[in-house]
Predict the structure.
Amino acid sequence: MRPLQPAPKRRAAMTALAGLLFAVLGIAGCSSPTRLEAVPAGIQAKASVEGMPDVRYWADGDSSEFLRDGLETVRRERDLLQQAGHRGPLPPADFLAISGGGEDGAFGAGLLVGWTAAGTRPRFKGVTGISTGALIAPFAFLGPEYDDKLKEVYTTITGKDILEQRGFMAAINNDAMADTAPLRKLVRRIFDQNMLDAIAAEHEKGRMLLIGTTNLDARRPVIWNVTKIAATHNPQALELVQTLLVASAAIPGAFPPVMIDVAADGRKFEEMHVDGGATAQVFVYPPSLNLRTEAQQAGITRQRRLFVIRNARLDPDWAQVERQTLSIANRAVSSLIQTQGVGDLYRIYITTQRDGIDFNLAYIPETFKTPLKEPFDPVYMKELFKVGYDLAVNGYPWAKTPPGYAAPEIEPPVPARAAKAVKEKRRGAVAY
C-alpha cells in the first residue's frame, strides 16, 4: 500500500481533481452546434437550392451541365455581337482564375489594380475564384470601376474584420476555433444588391463568374455559377451569394463551416460547405470537359487565353520548425497546401495544352520578404498589394509554364514509309 500523502499534497490533489471534474461537467453541459440531416449519398445529384435549381456543378464529375451552360454563354454573346452589327468570327476570349491564399490575396488584388493602370487588362469572358480568390473574383469580373473597392478591402482590413477568437474549449464543444461574424459583416458591406444586379447584366452578355466551395459531407468540390444565380433575380439570391463567399473562405477547423439548405425528393437537408481550398487551390473548369473537341463540334472557333493568379509563393519557404506538436502540424499542413497548389497548376496547364488555350501564370515573387506577424496583418498586406501593383504596372512577366515544368520532347508523327526509312537508317542501312 502506498503511504498516505501529507495533508497539503492531499488538498492539492483534491483541488486538481475537483477542477478536472468541473471541466468535464462543463463540457458535458455545453451542447455542440446541431444541423439537419446531410443529403444521403444516393440522392446527392438531386439536391438543389430551393427556387434556384441548376446553379452549381460537381467539379469532379460529369461535365455535361457545365458544357450546356457554357454553350449558352456563347449563344448570348453571339446574339449581342450580331445586334451590334458584328458578322465575323468570335473575338478572342480571356479567362481569369484566382487562387486561395488568405491575406496573400493582397497580391492578386494589387496585380489587378496595377494591370488596370498599365492599360492592358482584358475584359474577361469568365472569372473563377476560390477562398480569398472568391472574394476578389466579383471585383475582377465587373472590371476596373471596382478597383477602388478592391484596394480598400485588401489594404485596410485587419484580423478583427475577419474573425473573433473563441476560447480553447471551442476545439471540443464548437465547430471552429474562431467566429466569422466579422467576415459575414464585411461581405454584406462589400457585396451588395447593386453588385449582384451588375453581375446579372453581364450574364445576359454571355459572361460567367464561378466560385468554388467544398461539400464536406460528400468530400467533393462544387462550382457555383454566380452569374446564373444573379440572373434568377430570386429574393434570396443576394443572401446565397454572400453565404457562398463566406463558405469558400471557411478554413476547416479555424472558421465555422457554412450550412446550406437544399431539397431533394421532397425532403429538406443541410449541406456542410467549407473552404474551396480543401479540394483545390485554384480551378478553371472541370478537366473532364474537353473544350477543344466540344467547341469544334459546336462550330465555335476562337482564340483563348487563360491568366492564373496564384496568391502564394511557389519557391521553398525555409523555416526552422520547433520540436512541438502544433509547430510540426502547422508546418506540415502549410507544406501540403503549397504542394497541392503546385499540383493544381500542373493539372490546369496540361488541360490548357490539350484544349489549345494560351497559359499565363502569376505568383508572389521569392524576393518578397515582409514577415507576417499576425493573421491579416495590415502592414504585410499593404506591402504585398504594392508588390503586385508595381509588377503589373511595369508589365508583368507572365510565366508560360508551372514552376519546374519542362515540356517533353516529342517526335512529330511521320508517314509509315518515312518511319520505316528512319528505322532502317538507325540500323545503319541505306534508305531510299
Q: What stands out?
A: Residues 1-10, 20-29, 410-432 have pLDDT under 50 and may be disordered.
